[in-house]
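Appendix B. Chain record.
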Amino acid sequence: MASTSRPALDAQPPGTAPGTVPGKTLGTAKEPRLSARATATAEIYRSLRGDIVAMRRKPGEPIVEKHVAESFGVSRTPVREALLRLADDGLVEIFPQSGTFVARIPVNALPEAVVIRTSLECTAVRYAAVRAARSQIAALRANILLQQERMAAGDLDGFHEADEAFHSLISEIAGFPGLWNMAQQVKMQVDRYRRLTLPEPGRIAHVLAEHGGIVDAIAARDPAEAERLMTIHLGALLESVPNTQGANPFFFTGAQPDGPSKTKKESTPS
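Structure tokens predicted for this chain:
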């Protein structure tokens, strides 16, 4: 009886590598390793970025790859990748043969960052003044109470977080939360500088008063007044640059292009 020939189950089509399936690409051991490395890089980046922006890592302070790698339990590769991203952000400086250091705050970059942020947040506050529901206005006032509590407790980090939530909430009320996300991308250096101003006597109380005026304008459905007060509030950040830089000269590099006197005299954008 003649036997019927059948192809072997493990036979491969011509030109197909052993162990592969036609039309499919089988995963390799490298893929999960690459994914894990990307996750580690992102985690290290977020952690270092948060520490630098919050001034827990001071300008000029060295960042030792080995120490960071050990603290996260990873190799140096994701640490280097995270540091390269931070260098692109202008938050670290990498010197071959010398090391990596937290970048100093570039004073000449602050005015442009404030102008961009002001443009974004003035747009948000105008829409918020038109669209805010009573419950949303109540949420803004509750946030101001939280800021007052943080001030009374001397909790500068907590106050900064509540302040950030205040501005984020305005964008949400406006219906354009992406405006706040965009503002965060340009204000990293401003945040570092601002952290140095918070301990100044009366600074937080002044910020709270400005926040209160903005909420009152939103509650009054007055977009023009809300925009005017937001412009003043954000523009005031630059007024103390010379004093802050003088008190912390090693933390800064460069000089402000336009002095605070000129900034005050400039008319606010319409």
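Further analysis of this model is presented in Appendix C.
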